[in-house]
């Protein structure tokens, strides 16, 4: 069993993982989540039993980190969802943050599926592969997420 | 069928990722947590770019084959650990010594060597080679003798040809007994350059 140098995982996946995490948790938390994702991955890496789908493995970790971050943010109600210091924002205010806050409030599976679908523009089969589930289950998670969002963001 | 919600979801929050900052943060944290098994960087030498790789035990690889860095790192991943990060700060010790060596102010390297890419007799040959001083030369038969097998000079040649830490372990100081240059892992032009730098060949 041969694992590629960890650096190649950063090269291949950091940019897209970051976009995924920005969708999941917003730009400020995304940088932390990305670092935490790679640190957890690096820690576990030599013990991986197969190098089959490293991408899916990274997304599983990223999804967990996003869920942790969302829980943390929920425990800090006084803190703005995207961080305390407006001057430290790495990017301009997202155009539709209200909607993305609702996405962050979705159950983890739905949030991950919706983010894969709309931020990364993936086919359901690919979303299923990254989430370690079937194409159909991925489609259902996206659909359930959309249904819930329609209910909650309805004018 | 795309409705308004889906259209709005298709415009996710914008952001850019600073890859340099990410790499630096990961390298620093990995080192602090004892997870940086192999750190590598590129060093611009007068002989062209070198890939340097260090582990907590010492210098494990100096490679002329800069264009084949992926293959080099793959081999290290398989034989030592796949926890490999681009982390130039971790290679500063050897970089400074290489600067001084090429600048003519240092004759001996005193960085620890991680010998894990070398096995058996090859290790004995390379350790014998590491004792040849700056400005001196030896022969394949002499290093084979030093390594304990006077007749294994061909095997000694092979060991030198696959030296994972050239320059620092000075396999360029081993020549044919008859005075011929022999071979070199980085090509004979580089061997000549190093021997001129050390005053063995006329400048």
What does this structure look like?
The complex is a heterodimer of chains A (about 160) and B (about 200). Chain A has helices at about 5-25, 25-45, 55-75, 95-105, 110-120, 125-130, 135-155. With about 160 residues, chain A is mainly alpha-helical. Chain A has one domain (about 5-155). By secondary structure, chain B is an alpha/beta fold. Chain B folds into two domains: about 20-100, Double Stranded RNA Binding Domain (2-Layer Sandwich); about 120-195, Arc Repressor Mutant, subunit A (Orthogonal Bundle). Chain B is built from eight helices and six strands, in the order H-H-E-E-E-H-E-H-H-E-H-H-E-H. Chain B has a four-stranded mixed beta sheet, sandwiched between helices. A two-stranded parallel sheet of chain B has the order 5-6. Chain B starts with a helix and ends in a 6-residue tail after the last helix. The chains are: A mainly alpha (about 160), B alpha/beta (about 200). The interface of A and B includes residues 2, 18 and 99 of A.
Features:
heterodimer, A: 155 residues, mainly alpha, 68% helix, B: alpha/beta, Arc Repressor Mutant, subunit A, 2 domains, 4-stranded mixed β-sheet, two-stranded parallel sheet, 8 helices, elongated
Overall pLDDT confidence of chain B: 93
N-to-C series of helices and strands of chain B: HHEEEHEHHEHHEH
Q: List the uncertain runs of chain B.
A: none
Q: Low-confidence stretches of chain A at least 5 residues in length (pLDDT < 50)?
A: 86-95
Number of helices, where a helix is a run of at least 4 consecutive DSSP H or I residues of chain B: 8
Based on the structure given, which CATH architecture of the largest domain in chain B is correct?
2-Layer Sandwich
Q: Describe the sheet with the most strands of chain A.
A: none
Q: The CATH topology of the largest domain in chain B, please?
A: Double Stranded RNA Binding Domain
Mean pLDDT of chain A, to the nearest integer, reads 85
Q: Largest chain interface and its two residue counts?
A: A-B, 46 and 37 residues
Kindly state the number of beta strands of chain B: 6
Number of domains of chain B: 2
What oligomeric assembly is this protein in?
heterodimer
CATH class of the largest domain in chain B: Alpha Beta
Coarse morphology of chain B: elongated
Q: How many angstroms does the end-to-end distance of chain B come to? A: 76 Å
CA radius of gyration of chain B is 22 Å
Radius of gyration of chain A (Å): 16 Å
Tally of DSSP helical segments of chain A: 7
């Amino acid at each position: 069993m041969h694992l590629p140098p960890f650096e190649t995982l950063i090269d291949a996946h950091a940019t897209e993982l970051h976009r995924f995490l920005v969708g999941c948790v917003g730009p400020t938390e995304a940088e932390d989540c990305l670092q935490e994702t790679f640190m957890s991955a690096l820690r576990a890496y030599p013990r991986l039993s197969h190098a089959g789908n490293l991408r899916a493995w990274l997304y599983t970790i990223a999804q967990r980190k996003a869920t942790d971050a969302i829980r943390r943010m929920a425990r800090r109600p006084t803190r703005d969802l995207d961080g305390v210091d407006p001057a430290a924002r790495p990017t301009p205010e997202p155009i539709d943050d209200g909607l993305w806050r609702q996405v962050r409030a979705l159950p983890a599976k739905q949030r991950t599926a919706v983010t894969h679908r709309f931020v990364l523009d993936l086919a359901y089969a690919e979303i299923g592969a990254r989430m370690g589930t079937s194409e159909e289950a991925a489609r259902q998670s996206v659909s359930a997420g959309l249904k819930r969002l329609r209910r909650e963001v309805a004018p | 069928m795309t409705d308004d919600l889906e259209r709005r979801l298709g415009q996710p929050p914008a952001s850019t990722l600073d890859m340099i900052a990410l790499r630096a943060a990961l390298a620093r944290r990995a080192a602090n947590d004892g997870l940086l098994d192999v750190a590598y960087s590129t060093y611009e030498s007068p002989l062209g770019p070198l890939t340097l790789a260090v582990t907590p035990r010492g210098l494990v690889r100096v490679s002329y084959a800069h264009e084949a860095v992926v293959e080099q790192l793959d081999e290290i991943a398989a034989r030592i650990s796949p926890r490999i990060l681009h982390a130039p700060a971790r290679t500063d010790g050897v970089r400074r010594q290489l600067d001084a060596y090429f600048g003519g102010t240092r004759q001996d390297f005193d960085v620890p060597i991680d010998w894990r890419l070398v096995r058996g007799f090859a290790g004995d040959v390379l350790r014998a080679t590491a004792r040849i001083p700056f400005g001196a030369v030896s022969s394949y038969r002499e290093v084979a003798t030093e390594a304990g097998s006077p007749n294994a000079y061909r095997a000694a040649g092979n060991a030198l040809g696959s030296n994972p830490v050239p320059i620092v372990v000075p396999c360029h100081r081993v020549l044919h007994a008859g005075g011929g240059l022999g071979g070199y892992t980085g090509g004979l032009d580089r061997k000549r350059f190093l021997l001129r730098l050390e005053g063995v060949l006329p400048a």
